[in-house]
Design a protein that fits this description.
Layout: E1 9-17, H1 21-37, E2 43-47, E3 61-62, H2 65-70, E4 83-84, E5 87-94, E6 97-100, E7 116-117, H3 120-133, E8 137-140, E9 144-149, E10 155-160, E11 163-165, E12 171-176, E13 180-188, H4 195-204, E14 215-224, E15 234-240, E16 249-256, E17 260-268, H5 278-285, H6 289-295, E18 299-309, E19 320-321, E20 324-326, H7 342-361, H8 370-377, H9 380-387, H10 391-416, H11 456-462, E21 475-477, H12 482-491, H13 495-498, E22 504-509, E23 512-517, H14 527-531, E24 537-539
Parallel strand pairs: 1-2, 1-13, 2-8, 5-15, 13-20
Antiparallel strand pairs: 3-7, 4-7, 5-6, 9-10, 10-13, 11-12, 14-17, 14-18, 15-16, 16-17, 19-20, 21-24, 22-23
Helix pairs in contact: 1-3, 1-7, 7-8
Length: 553
């Protein structure tokens, strides 16, 4: 155990942190294997959201490869993915117009036909139901604070966050210490920039042989539009305006469900201008006719934001270590040009489950699952990610116009000649990419019209996020003086702009300024943990159940 607090202890064969597509796929696959062998295996999944799916946010156009492998008859079983892609549009936008990119010239991997538009949150809920029906124990509202490290350096399990702690750190009358959940193997499926995953990568040096991990921020709104404008199965992606050529990103727009449209925007977090606001770029993007015409007469009903892993194949850390493994977006399996990761997350969960089951059958526990590492290296997922491994570095180095063209050419080359071995490395982490404010141009964003474009606070309201005001602030400053003493004069404190929930403010009072953290607004996107130029902000878990409560996202 890593501390001296008296805790309740629960023991399982496999402990899984995170009830997303990766974690639930691992849990389901473990139970499937146990049923095939007519044996018992105990599996627990811990989810910090108030319910399964509450913190899931994705576009989403889902490649069914993961579902097909995990539950081949998912269509017959009623999985909530109904709208197969029927029309696939790509545009390069300028402020005054657009260029349609012919599908014929797109590398085969960029084709969305055969994929499904829908809500990844709803799909995750359905996976949770499948897992529970097989005997998996799922505990929502349970945030994992740290891993338990044994005497020989192995992960023994995890400790959940304490409950009933006041803002000043003192115990309330309702104080309950977190539980210790012990496992023979522990999977970390926390998603991009997971808080415990971050600790483990540092402790075990899991990124020593991989490149710098890269990230983006994805912002999304859900709209309900008039039936006559709804085109189920229509998928649209854009790049270019409103971002300048040196800033990577673009929009997505998907029609699905009952008159629903997902519209969103991704900004690569290696952007240089400290005055850029991803949220306001998203709002501005919706004013382009290519996007606005899909939302005409509609009503915005939900909003959220989440970081994305964008480093690709060369940035994937070592996946297994004594007693534990990284799965899903915690490891970084997203395909950047496709803006897809859920299928790879599921596949990684399946492979980790198969490796762990094999180890348990052999009587092993808390060793390094080398079988999982080998399975990933020889998988279809690896082949897919290797084909696109140079797209992000090319985009970052050469800008959108030339970089995307070179990236497309590189994808074609790697499709035709899969044996090509050259791999471009990422140059620097995202937090190191900002220019000083003195060398940057402020951006004049238009005011919201409250019909098509909106302000941050009204958007945060739609995320249904909630945190107890009398609990410790879960956004920790290593040095509380840095925001005002360093970041403000050098970068005009960019946290005021990169946060999509107005968590950070520079407040002037009586001739002095102070840095204010509105932790109640946080939607758990993790952008601050990634982009802060001083690496002074650390995102830790709040009480379990806190945060956004997304619906249909």
């Amino acid at each position: 155990m890593s501390d001296q607090v008296e805790r309740d202890i629960m023991e399982f064969d496999v402990v899984i942190v995170g009830a997303g597509p990766a974690g639930l796929s691992a849990a389901i696959r473990l139970k499937q294997l146990a049923a095939e062998k007519d044996t018992e295996i105990s599996v627990v999944v811990l989810e910090k959201g108030s319910e399964v799916g509450a913190h899931i946010l994705s576009g989403a156009v889902v490649d069914p490869a993961g579902l097909d492998k995990l539950i081949p008859d998912w269509r017959e079983q009623g999985a909530p993915l109904k709208d197969e892609v029927t029309k696939d549009l790509f545009y390069y936008l300028g402020e005054g117009g657009e260029i349609r990119l012919p599908n014929l010239f797109m590398p085969p991997l960029m084709n969305n036909h055969g994929c499904y538009a829908g809500s990844l949150g709803n799909l995750t809920k359905w996976l949770g139901e499948q897992a529970e029906s097989m005997g998996v124990e799922i505990y929502p509202g349970i945030a994992v604070a740290e891993a338990i490290i044994g005497a020989d350096g192995e992960v023994e399990g995890v400790i959940t966050g304490d409950l009933g702690v006041a803002r000043d750190g003192s115990p309330k009358d309702s104080y309950t210490p977190g539980m210790a959940l012990l496992g023979k193997y522990t999977f970390f499926a926390e998603g991009a920039r997971g808080s415990v995953t971050k600790q483990l990568i540092k402790k075990y040096g899991l990124d020593e042989d991989s490149g710098t991990q890269k990230f983006g921020i994805g912002l999304k709104e859900l709209w309900e539009i008039p039936p006559e404008n709804h085109k189920p199965g229509l998928v649209q992606h854009t790049m270019g305006w409103p971002l300048d050529n040196n800033t990577g990103g673009g929009s997505f727009l998907y029609h699905f469900g009952d008159n629903l449209v997902s519209v969103g925007f991704v900004v690569h977090l290696d952007y240089a201008n400290p005055y850029l606001s991803p949220f306001k770029e998203f709002q501005r993007s919706k004013t382009h006719p290519v996007i606005a015409r899909h939302l005409e007469g509609g009503k915005r009903i939900a909003y959220g934001a989440r970081a994305l892993t964008e480093g690709g194949w060369q940035a994937i850390p070592q996946l297994a270590f004594p007693g534990g493994a990284l799965i899903g977006c915690a490891a970084g399996f997203m395909n950047v040009p496709r803006i897809k990761g859920s299928h790879n997350a599921m596949l990684s969960g399946i492979m980790a489950a198969e490796a762990a089951f094999q180890a348990l059958e052999a009587g092993r526990a808390r060793d390094t699952l080398l079988e999982y590492i080998l399975a990933v290296e020889n998988s279809s997922m690896a082949k897919e990610l290797k084909k696109v491994r140079n797209v992000k570095p090319l985009w970052s180095r050469f800008g959108t116009r030339l970089g995307v063209m070179l990236g497309g050419f590189d994808m074609w080359l790697n499709t035709i000649f899969p044996f090509l071995g050259y791999t471009l490395k990422h140059k620097k982490p995202d937090f190191a990419s900002l220019r000083p404010a003195a060398k940057s141009k402020p951006i004049d964003y238009p005011k919201p019209d409250n019909t098509l474009t909106f302000d941050i606070l009204s958007s945060v309201f739609l995320s249904n996020t909630n945190h107890d005001e009398d609990e410790p602030v879960h956004l920790r400053l290593t040095d509380p003086e840095i925001p005002i003493d360093q970041n403000l004069p050098k970068y005009d404190e960019p946290a005021q702009r990169y946060c999509p929930a107005n968590v950070y403010e520079v407040v002037e009072e009586g001739g002095t300024v102070r840095f204010q953290i509105n932790a109640q607004n946080c939607v758990h996107c993790k952008t601050c943990d990634i982009k802060d130029p001083a690496q002074n902000i650390t995102w830790v878990v709040p009480e379990g159940g806190d945060g956004p409560n997304y619906a249909n996202m």
